[in-house]
Design goal:
The chain is an alpha/beta fold. It folds into 2 domains: 5-119, NAD(P)-binding Rossmann-like Domain (Rossmann fold); 124-214, Alpha-Beta Plaits, CATH 3.30.70.1450. The chain has 9 helices and 11 strands. The protein has helices spanning 13-24, 36-42, 57-61, 79-91, 104-113, 121-134, 164-167, 169-173, 208-214, and strands at 5-9, 28-33, 48-51, 70-73, 97-100, 117-119, 138-143, 148-154, 176-182, 185-187, 201-207. Helix 4 (79-91) runs parallel beside helix 5. The longest helix has 14 residues, at 121-134. The protein is elongated, with a radius of gyration of 21 Å. The model has no long low-confidence stretch (mean pLDDT 92). The structure holds adenosine-5'-triphosphate.
């Protein structure tokens, strides 16, 4: 894994969890927060923790923002601060900006500014949990966007004993099968002739509504 550099602006629950995890994974992580206490709590957990107001242009300029691989704006409630910070980051040539939004309007403004990826952690986590809780077949799920996911699921009964050619998941459901796990074995390039067995785990990618249809 290539070591990357991240700047996380805003060390609330989302920002600090992201920053600490990235740091534990061996990446360089700088955290900026206006709140001295938050910064003190993170000082020995990340590469660099800085107490500063990100809406002050001077503070952002001194970071050398264009050198970071990814900049994360993790300010939610203070919408004005989130927008102003993202705008300055964009102007200063940040390579890739990911920003957290609390509401649809907040997200829309961030997209207009040119933020590369907008995430809605509370909304997306709620939706993901709802899918996992209501469908006992779904073991894990990664949201690729509000509409698309990668899911790990137990092969539904109707698939058992059928080949991929017979199942024809791509044209019948619009779903791509990435891998099949059978006990300890994992098949990462499934072919048309491969047969799904009872209790196989499938890793699939597709539209959420098509994935739901598959399990109905
Ligand atoms: P979370 O849900 O992740 O806890 P939140 O959505 O409630 O966060 P906020 O409370 O607005 O979001 O902000 C998250 C963090 O951003 C806080 O630690 C706050 O101190 C910090 N923050 C807010 N405004 C600024 C700013 N202008 N400069 C730097 N940090 C800021």
């Amino acid at each position: 894994m290539r070591r990357k550099s991240f700047a996380v602006i805003g060390a609330g629950r989302f920002g600090s969890s992201l920053a600490v995890t990235l740091s534990e994974m061996g990446h360089d992580v700088l955290v900026m927060d206006i709140d001295e206490k938050k910064i003190q709590g993170l000082a020995d957990k990340v590469t660099h923790a800085l107490q500063a107001d990100s809406t002050n242009e001077h503070n952002i300029k001194t970071l050398g923002i264009a050198n970071f691989d990814v900049v994360i704006v993790a300010i939610g409630v203070e919408m004005q601060a989130s927008i102003l910070t993202s705008l300055m980051l964009k102007e200063l040539g940040a390579k890739y900006i990911l920003a957290k939004a609390r509401t649809e309007q907040h997200g829309k403004v961030l997209e207009r500014i040119g933020v590369d990826r907008v995430v809605f952690p509370e909304r997306d986590m709620g939706a993901r949990l709802a899918r996992q809780l209501t469908d006992t077949h779904v073991l894990d799920c990664i949201d690729l966007s509000p509409d698309y996911s990668v899911e790990e699921l137990m092969a539904p009964d109707f698939m058992a004993g059928k080949s991929l050619q017979e199942l024809n998941l791509r044209s019948r459901y619009g779903i791509n099968l990435i891998a099949i796990r059978s006990g300890d074995r994992i098949n990462i390039s499934p072919l048309a002739g491969d047969v799904i067995e009872k209790n196989d785990l499938l890793i699939v990618v597709g539209k959420n509504k098509d994935l739901d249809r598959l399990l109905q």
